[in-house]
Amino acid sequence: MDHGPNRRLSSQAMAFVLAGGRGSRLKELTDKRAKPAVYFGGKTRIIDFALSNALNSGIRKMAIATQYKAHSLIRHMQRGWSFFRAERNEYLDILPASQRVAENKWYLGTADAVTQNIDIVDSYGVKYIIVLAGDHIYKMDYEIMLAAHVDSGADVTIGCLTVPRAEASAFGVMDIADDGRITAFLEKPKDPPGMPGDPDHTLASMGIYVFDWDFLRDLLIRDAEDPNSSHDFGHDLIPDIVKNGKAMAHRFSESCVRSGLEEEPYWRDVGTIDAFWQANIDLTDFVPKLDIYDNTWPIWTYAELVPPAKFIHDEEGRRGMAVSSLVAGDCIVSGSDVKNSLLFTGVRAHSFSTLEYAVVLPYAQVGRKSQLKNCVIDRGVIIPEGLVVGEDPDEDGKWFRRSENGIVLITQEMIDARAAKLG
């Protein structure tokens, strides 16, 4: 398969990452940060997965469009992703919605985020553009998808997940012909179509689109002039191409990166407190569904220089220990019992406390004698001595945010409000 003198397609492509998402279903976790900047997996942030996929696929030109509460995300980019060198023809641009087009225009939709930066994409001189969402957890080789796009001669190639029909109503879904050509694109349908030869499953959009830049550029300019358009890929551009052009489906299973331990392709939208908690806790399994220890496909991030984790005290009832847990650097487990939990950088767990199925974000402190179960603790929260969470649903719901599945989210504001009430 020869794609010209410069065979590697990824060197002719750029990744355009849509990272403006508010992520309101994550409730207070996104009060101070956009969803792509939310912490995940002990060290990383959600956006690191899309960016690492691009980097590991050989893509060295990236743009990140930010909008909602972007400071945390921008700071993370500057600290963790500043190794691109322009003299090697590598670029990483952060593109805040900076009212470049008109004073009253933020990014109106996902397509508009690209339209407002056409001049910047032009300056890269790229042939292909991969549009990515910045808020999903997965490992994928985009070079394989690029090759499929070029070989099929498609106007757009859409990354697709195979999902049970019963769950497909939450997605944009496709109806496809036997050759993979998309015949219909339906946004969150009540009765999703089955797949050829597999009526119980549906192909759902991952929000990953590959275009030839020349084609997309013309399409964006036309879309910008349409007063009836919401300037969104899923609502406007993709249905238009399906109807008037050639749209192809690319199955995630064909380009998913697996280390040999993962039994099935892993993709998660950690957009709710329950999903966020579950995906983090999944990493503590004996054989996790996602292998983050695979050095052939590293997840790049901002790695702080911190001392190793430390476990202290060894007496009955006051033993610093962690079982079936992930414990990041600079954590001190001081006479605390940690099980099936994930402690991010710099967590302090004090004597006689217990943590079970807890996701504890960086620099939180767990007070003595507290008992925490089935919870997510936000960054820097100071858990007071003796607090019990995960035992009494009514008590939990009185002070903290408790999800449908009984997962409790704890922020410092909630702790402070509780302290003020209890005096």
Structural summary, described in words:
- The chain has 423 residues and is of the alpha/beta class.
- Helices cover 23% and strands 27% of the residues.
- The chain has helices at residues 47-56, 71-80, 110-115, 118-124, 142-152, 213-224, 233-244, 273-282, 393-399, 412-422; strands at residues 13-18, 39-40, 44-45, 61-66, 91-96, 128-133, 137-138, 156-164, 172-176, 182-187, 201-212, 247-251, 267-268, 310-312, 314-315, 318-319, 321-323, 326-327, 332-334, 337-339, 342-343, 348-349, 354-360, 365-366, 371-377, 382-383, 388-389, 401-402, 408-410.
- The strands form six sheets. Strands 1, 4, 5, 6, 8, 9, 10, 11 and 12 form a nine-stranded mixed β-sheet that branches. Strands 17, 18, 20, 21, 23, 25, 27, 28 and 29 form a nine-stranded mixed β-sheet that branches.
- A hairpin with a 3-residue loop joins strand 2 and strand 3 (44-45).
- The chain is globular and about 70 Å long.
- Alpha-D-glucose 1-phosphate binds at residues 107, 172, 187-188, 205.
- This is Glucose-1-phosphate adenylyltransferase.
- Its EC number is 2.7.7.27.
- It comes from Paracoccus albicereus.
- Pathway: Glycan biosynthesis; glycogen biosynthesis.
